[in-house]
Amino acid sequence: MPSRLVAQRLPWSDPVAIFTGGLGAQQHAFWLDAGPDADAGFSWMGVGTPADHPPADVLLAASPNDRAYATDPTDAASIPGPFHGGWVGWSGYDTAAAAAGAPARVEDADGPPHVWLRTDWFLTIDHAARRMWLVGPLASMAEARERVAGWVAASRAASAAPRRPANGGPATLVASARHTASEYAALIERCRDAIRAGDAYQLCLTTRFTVTASTAFDPVATYLALRSALPAHHGGFIRSGDTALLSASPERFLEVRDAVVRTRPIKGTRPRGHDDTEDEELRRQLQESVKERAENVMIVDLMRNDLQRVCVPGTVVTERLLEVESYSAVHQLVSTVAGELVAETTLGDLCTATFPAGSMTGAPKLSAMTILHALEAGSRGLYAGCFGWVGADGAADLAMTIRSVVLRPDGAYVGAGGGITWLSDAAEEVAEVGIKARGPLAALGVGLPPGW
Questions:
Q1: H/E/C letters for each residue in the chain?
Q2: What domain count does the chain have?
């Protein structure tokens, strides 16, 4: 049985100082990051022990008496925030697609398809209150406090010289593309052929940009560059062994709290404008686009169908529909679907019903995944999967692995794609992929190849 957990208040420290002072260099570490200027919500950072998966039998409607934590009234406040200990990690796309019955490629070079760290101890950061707590087994608290204090001190003492995100090579590196822009445009037409034939009505066509390096990229500096350029409410750094996932994800996949599950699919993208007038016009175009609205509604319908497999009949509702959210690089069209989970629903049940996410497959889901497997001609790896936390008490918060960099010993890769419907314009879709890939590649000091 896991050790009972306690929470102890710490003096406020800049999370970046803890990260750069030593946390980011740990072999099995994480930072689930609300963003560089967050003034609301929570972040969590800490270390853990690798586990294959969170147990599939974790109840997502567990009562408080079933929780795998407790507080020590003589030493700790109640554990703040929604995450009370459990697992932090990622699950990739390809093995999930195979489990759903679709053809899939699983490549060792992509990194472990699943990494989940059973939390040893972690910091809970309340951005609204600017408060910080250390959470872990009571027996480990003294050592953990010393490590955190040491990392803060090390950060203050470090040289002011910035860390280079790249591997020491020139900043003019250019990524190699799985598909040229013209090849991707041709694949869009093949998607439209499949839609014309009635085999699908929306397809999330993706590609990959790869950087090969003789020396490994610096995960800490790369993540700092990524979060600075693309601040997001579901940023994430998860490092385990020789693989690191760095994400500036704007898309929440699944949130489970008090036996209610929510998903927030994103479909529809426009770049930010060069000035306020252009920016507002691009936002208006997104809001009014027939193609983007139709694409979003298609995925809302798919997610409603997925959630109905594990929710109480009549409780699945669309809480928000076709709302524009703006980020540093893009405007996005977002909807929210929610439902009340059936009693005794487990994590395994929910993942079987919903993963891979419909926003990264298309619809109908199995047909879409089968078509895309043939068109994309390569694995997706960690891209188009999910990452985040699963609590031992049945809560969870998982984001889509998009706007992300996967670091491996010999380089890095970035996935990007877009939803294709009958109304898609190939040139616009190619441009959208370039917009999505540009920021993550720039965090590596790498440019897009010609045409993108």
A1: CCCCEEEEEECCCCHHHHHHHCHHHCCEEEEEECCCCCCCCEEEEEEEEEECCCCCCCECCCCHHHCCCCCCCCCCECCCCCCCCEEEEEECHHHHHHHCCCCCCCCHHHCCCEEEEEEEEEEEEECCCCEEEEEEEHHHHHHHHHHHHHHHHHHHHCCCCCCCCCCCCCCCEECEECCCHHHHHHHHHHHHHHHHCCCCCEEEEEEEEEEECCCCCCHHHHHHHHHHHCCCCEEEEEEECCEEEEEEECCEEEEEECCEEEECCEEEEEECCCCHHHHHHHHHHHHHCHHHHHHHHHHHHHHHHHHHCCECCCCCEEEEEEEEEECCCEEEEEEEEEEEECCCCEHHHHHHHHCCCHHHCEECHHHHHHHHHHHHCCCCCCCCCEEEEEECCCCEEEEECCCEEEEECCEEEEEEEEEECCCCCHHHHHHHHHHHHHHHHHHCCEECCCCC
A2: 1
